Amino acid sequence: MQNFRLSNSVATTIAILFHAIGLAGMLWGNSNYFAGLSSLNLLLVLVLILLTQQDKNRSFYLFMIAAMIIGFGVEIIGVHTGWLFGKYHYTSQLGYAAFSVPLIIGVNWFVVSYCSGMSIKAFQNKLSSKFPEASLETNKKVKVLSVILDGALLAVLFDWLMEPVAVKLGYWIWEGDIPFYNYFCWFVISSLLLWIFDKSRFEKKNKFAVHLLLIQSMFFLLLRTFL
Length: 227
Fold this sequence. Notes:
The chain is mainly α. The protein is built from 9 helices and 4 strands. It has helices at residues 8-28, 31-35, 38-52, 58-81, 104-130, 132-137, 140-168, 180-199, 207-226, and strands spanning 88-90, 97-98, 101-102, 172-174. The protein has a two-stranded antiparallel ribbon. A two-stranded antiparallel ribbon has the order 2-3.
């Protein structure tokens, strides 16, 4: 995958196709069956990210591994203690698990943090191209804070869209209602991952990541509305 790259348009088309099939299957077919394929869909998304990332250097892979390990680690703490996110537990719907947490959850944390960071970077680049003079006056620290905090807000918004759908599809089960504390913890942990994202030295331009965040957000918004 180091030398082979997939165009953003092809990767976006593939992502739309698979999410559309999943959406149709969950709304009008066997929702339990298609929900069980979610881990495979996340693996496909991971492959598409790897095939569209421009410069897959050591720093990129270190960020990816760090996001997966941290994401998986906080979920273990959350499931076994309730100190993070609240009281919940996973089902077998997301496939193989270790320490009561599906292995694919680490991939999800990487995908969400990567796409959120890339989206904020894309927005900053768009502003810079349209208003170059204003961009020159913008403090570098402000841009870094924007990647971390605005990116974390995007991640929390995505989780807010996803949570009720995930519960309906049986990915995990809450003891009671979804607490506000869950979203607070998502913001804090996402901020940490996005800080690592910003500090990591790899090419931070990937249109597919922006498209993917929009595709997945629309996917869960439609399921949240009609499921």
